[in-house]
Design brief:
59% strand; 18-stranded antiparallel barrel; disordered N terminus; mainly beta
Length: 461
């Protein structure tokens, strides 16, 4: 799939290059006929106060670290009357520096050499009564697990590789009405360091395929305001329905060495209004309902149940919280609200609230409530400013039952030195804390704080 996308981008660039000569100046990008190619690269340093997201206890101390970061990116945009095409591809390298080679910690085991992301968007006949739409996102992302003393020759990163594809037909019976009949396909692969697994073999922890239909409707009853509706049905199928309960031993927990991870079917329906209500005020409000139903038989039929004796002893399909747990009625309530206000040109404030649920990797599902406040500003088109504060509560259900509080605070700034070069700095505070009374006893190790900062330069042709 990745190869096919690369070939498609190459063919598009080649065809445009043949049809028209390239013309560009530094900061003006590369122009090939109607297409614009934008190469860019960011390089800088990044520092963390808690690289491995540890709880800071005697057994798992916080480890500070600094890394060199390199992020090249290539963008391609074609804006035509019959075809609109966008392609963005980026790569991320992160090399940690060990300033204290004599101690017991190895920050180089958190090096990241395989991070990348590709975004593709294609619209065919965007103004016709019948059109076609395709969107695809592919990424590979790693982050450090709680393994500060693992030898540097072995990676301590947990890695997720995912691809989400959405494609289908757009129908426009009138200038104000549009429907979309789409299909979605998602693939997720999860890899963990082999030191976290007790069973010999691969570091592939689990994989998931999800697919199903998506139907949307939009009625533009005012020039900049629309009524919107959405329905989706999703089939979620896991490679392994019996997985190891990786991580530290949790005293007082009823979780054994294995966890049931059942397949599921999920559906959602929501509707609302979105638009620009005044020159300074834009808003979106959608409410709905959904459910996720889990198939416990998929766990009982897993080959591991018959071959691993301890797994058989741990299986239990009775009780309020097991791998047979489906979403509750209250967890099925969906809310998505956003209000954006721009008091003066170049400055905007956005406040939002989202309530939803999603399938989880290590238990059945997580229901979450998230509220955020965001500021974006620009001064004289040279100085860019940003700030964001968000608070999210996660409630996990299944064999693993816990509640987390997630607090994120970010600030950022950038200065445009020339048309093709800019400097940037950012800082963030990431905090996760237990939200249940017994968290300090059972899930203390899931809590952490991490202060991080980045200083770098971006060059764009």
């Amino acid at each position: 799939m990745q190869s096919a996308r690369m070939k498609l981008g190459f063919v598009a660039v080649l065809a445009l290059a043949v049809s028209a000569p390239a013309a560009a100046a530094p900061g003006d990008h590369i122009r090939l006929g109607d297409a614009v190619v934008t190469p860019a690269v960011m390089t800088g340093i990044e520092a963390h106060s808690n690289l491995y997201l540890a709880d800071g206890g005697p057994q798992t101390p916080e480890v500070t670290a600094m890394a060199w970061v390199l992020k090249p990116h290539l963008g391609l945009e074609l804006d035509g009357r019959q075809v609109k095409f966008e392609l963005g591809a980026g790569y991320g390298l992160k090399k940690f520096i060990d300033f204290y080679p004599e101690d017991e910690f190895f920050p180089e085991n958190a090096d990241r050499f395989s991070d990348f992301d590709v975004d593709l968007s294609l619209a065919v006949l965007p103004q016709s009564r019948v059109g076609f739409r395709l969107e695809d996102h592919l990424d590979n992302e790693a982050y450090a697990a709680e393994l500060p003393t693992l030898e540097g020759s072995t990676s301590a990163n947990v890695t997720h590789t995912g691809n989400d594809l959405l494609a289908g037909v757009q129908l426009r019976p009138g200038s104000a009405l549009q429907f979309e009949v789409l299909g979605q396909l998602g693939i997720d692969l999860y890899y963990v360091p082999d030191s976290l697994l007790t069973l010999p073999g691969t570091t592939a922890y689990n994989g998931r395929q999800q697919y199903g239909p998506v139907v949307t409707g939009t009625w533009k009853f005012l020039p900049k305001t629309s009524l919107v509706g959405n329905f989706s049905y999703n089939f979620l199928r896991w490679d392994n329905n019996l997985i190891e309960a990786i991580g530290p031993d949790i005293e007082g927990s009823s979780i054994g060495s294995y966890i049931g991870k059942p397949d599921a079917d999920a559906w959602r329906v929501n509707a609302g209004v979105t638009g620009q209500f005044t020159q300074k005020l834009a808003a979106s409000a959608q409410i709905g309902f959904g459910a996720m139903t889990y198939d416990e038989q998929s766990v009982l039929d897993d080959p591991g149940v018959a071959t691993i004796v301890s797994a058989v002893d741990e299986l239990n399909v009775t009780g309020a919280e097991t791998f047979a747990t489906d979403t509750s009625i209250t967890d099925g309530i969906l809310v998505n609200l956003q209000v954006a206000y721009a008091p003066v040109r170049g400055h905007s404030m956005t406040v939002g609230y989202r309530r939803d649920f999603q399938d989880a990797v290590f238990t059945n599902y997580v229901a979450f409530n998230n509220v955020f406040l965001r500021y974006e500003g620009s001064i004289q088109n040279r100085l860019g400013l940003g700030a964001e504060l968000s608070y999210r509560i996660d409630a996990f259900h299944g064999e693993v039952v816990r509640s987390d509080q997630n607090l994120t605070a970010k600030i950022s700034s950038s200065y445009k030195i020339t048309q093709w070069a800019s400097a940037g700095a950012s800082g963030s505070w990431l905090r996760r804390a237990c939200a249940a009374a017994d968290c300090d006893e059972i899930f203390y190790s899931t809590q952490y704080d991490d202060f991080s900062g980045t200083l770098g330069f971006t060059f764009a042709y």
